[in-house]
Amino acid sequence: xxxxxxxxxxxxxxxxxxxxxxxxxxxxxxxxxxxxxxxxxxxxxxxxxxxxxxxxxxxxxxxxxxxxxxxxxxxxxxxxxxxxxxxxxxxxxxxxxxxxxxxxxxxxxxxxxxxxxxxxxxxxxxxxxxxxxxxxxxxxxxxxxxxxxxxxxxxxxxxxxxxxxxxxxxxxxxxxxxxxxxxxxxxxxxxxxxxxxxxxxxxxxxxxxxxxxxxxxxxxxxxxxxxxxxxxxxxxxxxxxxxxxxxxxxxxxxxxxxxxxxxxxxxxxxxxxxxxxxxxxxxxxxxxxxxxxxxxxxxxxxxxxxxxxxxxxxxxxxxxxxxxxxxxxxxxxxxxxxxxxxxxxxxxxxxxxxxxxxxxxxxxxxxxxxxxxxxxxxxxxxxxxxxxxxxxxxxxxxxxxxxxxxxxxxxxxxxxxx
Amino acid sequence: xxxxxxxxxxxxxxxxxxxxxxxxxxxxxxxxxxxxxxxxxxxxxxxxxxxxxxxxxxxxxxxxxxxxxxxxxxxxxxxxxxxxxxxxxxxxxxxxxxxxxxxxxxxxxxxxxxxxxxxxxxxxxxxxxxxxxxxxxxxxxxxxxxxxxxxxxxxxxxxxxxxxxxxxxxxxxxxxxxxxxxxxxxxxxxxxxxxxxxxxxxxxxxxxxxxxxxxxxxxxxxxxxxxxxxxxxxxxxxxxxxxxxxxxxxxxxxxxxxxxxxxxxxxxxxxxxxxxxxxxxxxxxxxxxxxxxxxxxxxxxxxxxxxxxxxxxxxxxxxxxxxxxxxxxxxxxxxxxxxxxxxxxxxxxxxxxxxxxxxxxxxxxxxxxxxxxxxxxxxxxxxxxxxxxxxxxxxxxxxxxxxxxxxxxxxxxxxxxxxxxxxxxxxxxxxxxxxxxxxxxxxxxxxxxxxxxxxxxxxxxxxxxxxxxxxxxxxxxxxxxxxxxxxxxxxxxxxxxxxxxxxxxxxxxxxxxxxxxxxxxxxxxxxxxxxxxxxxxxxxxxxxxxxxxxxxxxxxxxxxxxxxxxxxxxxxxxxxxxxxxxxxxxxxxxxxxxxxxxxxxxxxxxxx
Lengths: 418, 608
Prior knowledge:
The complex is a heterodimer.
Chain A: E1 25-30, E2 32-33, E3 45-46, H1 53-68, E4 75-82, H2 92-102, E5 106-116, H3 118-123, H4 127-133, E6 136-144, H5 148-153, H6 160-172, E7 177-184, H7 191-202, E8 209-214, H8 222-228, H9 237-253, E9 257-260, E10 263-265, H10 275-279, E11 284-287, E12 292-295, E13 300-304, H11 308-316, E14 322-327, H12 330-341, E15 348-349, H13 350-357, H14 359-364, H15 366-374, E16 378-381, E17 388-391, H16 393-397, H17 399-405, H18 412-417
Parallel strand pairs in A: 1-4, 1-11, 2-3, 4-5, 5-6, 6-7, 7-8
Antiparallel strand pairs in A: 8-10, 9-10, 12-13, 13-14, 15-17, 16-17
Helix pairs in contact in A: 1-2, 1-11, 7-9
Chain B: E1 13-20, H1 26-38, H2 42-59, E2 68-73, E3 79-85, H3 94-102, E4 106-112, H4 119-130, E5 134-140, H5 149-160, E6 168-169, H6 178-188, E7 201-210, E8 214-223, E9 225-227, E10 231-234, E11 240-242, E12 245-249, E13 253-256, E14 258-260, E15 264-268, E16 282-285, E17 304-310, H7 316-329, E18 334-340, E19 344-351, H8 354-366, E20 372-374, E21 378-379, E22 381-385, E23 390-393, E24 405-420, H9 424-433, E25 438-443, E26 448-456, H10 458-461, H11 464-471, E27 477-488, E28 490-497, E29 500-501, E30 507-510, H12 511-528, E31 536-542, E32 545-552, H13 568-583, E33 586-588, E34 591-593, H14 595-602
Parallel strand pairs in B: 1-3, 1-4, 4-5, 5-6
Antiparallel strand pairs in B: 2-3, 7-8, 7-16, 8-15, 9-14, 10-11, 10-16, 12-13, 12-15, 17-19, 17-20, 17-21, 18-19, 22-23, 22-24, 24-26, 24-27, 25-26, 28-29, 28-30, 28-31, 31-32, 33-34
Helix pairs in contact in B: 12-14
């Protein structure tokens, strides 16, 4: 870590037509939260007070995992996700990033991102400056809502003014990339009330990136159990559609352009250079409990043990804490590429897709593409065989349906062979 | 266990069948009689049944068929051979019931002790009387809490005209009354007649197929004798066959030297294909041919038609195979190949009635493991065209251009409906809704009423039975017979999805019913087709005229909320499952229609 990155050294756009293949990414899962949100199904475990013994065990095991997984990966992003990374003690992010650089897993001066809860920045006014000193490039704030009753419903510990204070502290500390998360689609939310919240969100100090996700009720979560008992927690799917439109329209009106179905940036350089790796099938390594990894060269995905103790135990035995691996067949990989790329406004490069999976697949879907275009779901840049299919806003709304509609029969033989 | 060695003399043979309304316990009683006479325990019986599925095919064990020879030893030590002849228990099979009854001298008339005499019981009893059978009433299920044997006795007296005190009380389930039933068979049903010296005439009342032996004819020898080595011919065929084996229908086929007049048993004559025989035909001796056939055969006349498609197009071959097998034992079942743009390859099938259709569908699904789609049942219409030709049309696909149609006729039935007195109002309302032509009421005992109603057959094809049960709180039952053809006003209703006709949903309906029927289809289809990313119009049309319409709104969102954190696998697997489900959908124009939509629309129809 020699010099702090600035806006002239932005990472290359991994999706652009001319860019080199995107550099790999490193994801670090921080599995602790001070309280568990009722909708969350990520691998999290409550942390009993600051400086607890578990946090220290986690830090040591994490560094050991980096050593176990040492390889010439050269990630240009190190993303701390959770859980609540903002609970981590001073110096943690820099220490882990440096260790990753030393093990060859990250290239020197990687872009460091972390997820933070607004209340942590409110309670610890020095936190933002401390992160800036650790050369953190971007912070994603888990704001989720600005409406007080929605914040309570979502079980969040902060209020709307906390969110504003947190954002301004990050901006004052000079954190270059400030993102806020929003969850829409809670029961009772109307497009009008959503628009109001989004306008307030877009106006938070220093914010240049917004992620807006529709609430999904996952089995095994408190919300999942409440819904199973018959409670209505989320809007009906057709109202979700109206909200999707309201979100996209309001954010566009307020200077945030969608570049993915749920992600918006105030300028192209503020697109999340880490998350975009997932959608472009770039290589990434995940460390920490439940973290997922992808090795495009081998078409392999693998993921870590989910429970903290299981993960730690494997590492203490000197073993990689991998829970499972899968090798993608051509069919599976093609489907992944479709549904991931069709979530982004860059869309699907037909030439590249042909080169990877055979021209027959693109040929077999030409009429389908024609229908998508006729319905205004995609636009074609370039020609029908080598151009890019770029989803419109309506197309992003139905990206999964588009991926499902694609005929991949030309690949079936390979899938069986795989 | 009775002594099985040596043939039982004809005076100690009894040929009988069991006739009953559906669910009055016919199968259970048959099983009990087999157990009692076969001397097998419950446990063995069950094991044998379970094991017999493969054995049955391989070795011709006849345990599954209810046509079986039982040996029964009476209290005075005499051994009787009781031949139980299977009868189909359905209203549609009146001819099959007749054929079985022709092979018998007596019948057990089974009446449920709680349900009492039902319309079918009456119909069956009339047929039994027609053939001069000795009828032994059996009041079954006396163990039920709701059993009311005294009321049922009254009904047997007043509605069937039988001596109520001759009725045997039984619970086949609990094995009660079985000895009394066996005694009644022996003492009240007469032995068969017929002269063994006459030229051979044997009625084929059923047939089975054996992989190794070919066709196994189940016969009732009416005159003469049939023995191994005889040369025989079927009256309706022109080939001679050599009898390879004759025998009795014990739990396994039990070969004997000869079957004489009065006997019931099987004959294997080297016939390879079941298509080469006709149930109801007469077996005669080539050397000494009888001149007149037995009155068992009738050209099957299907009256209800439906298109049958496999849910999975891969199953087409299996469906064809299964229909072939079923039609072997069921000459009334007709089928011919048909193609639907929506559903692919299938068959237009003809049935004796709705119940026959249900039975065939169930057997195809249960015995052959097929998942099926059936189009709305149709009757056979008579359409005369301007050029003076008469067309029989039962398939909407072949309905002539209305511009050249001169007139149309549809089949009418006489329905006999037995209901409690208090249900007369609602039932008359239902009948009026069903285009009732005329009706007559007979007031019976126990506050019950029989309505004789003339109405179009097509009107009972759609949920009539269910509706009747509903409006009579479960107490109504009906039976019907075909009457004649009468003039009607028919239209062909098409269902269009985004302007494309879904051929499998086209139907011929009476003018008055067209709009409600079309609307019902549109609405149910709209519920069952998932949203697409464009608006879908579902319309009902007569020719170019739209008579009903619903819309499916466009899907506005179909994208998973969160897709980051790197867990792509779970998401991909979900999509793969969804994509797999999509493959099973049928494409009509640009709309994907899931099989479940066809099932939802076709399984029953609105009370139009």
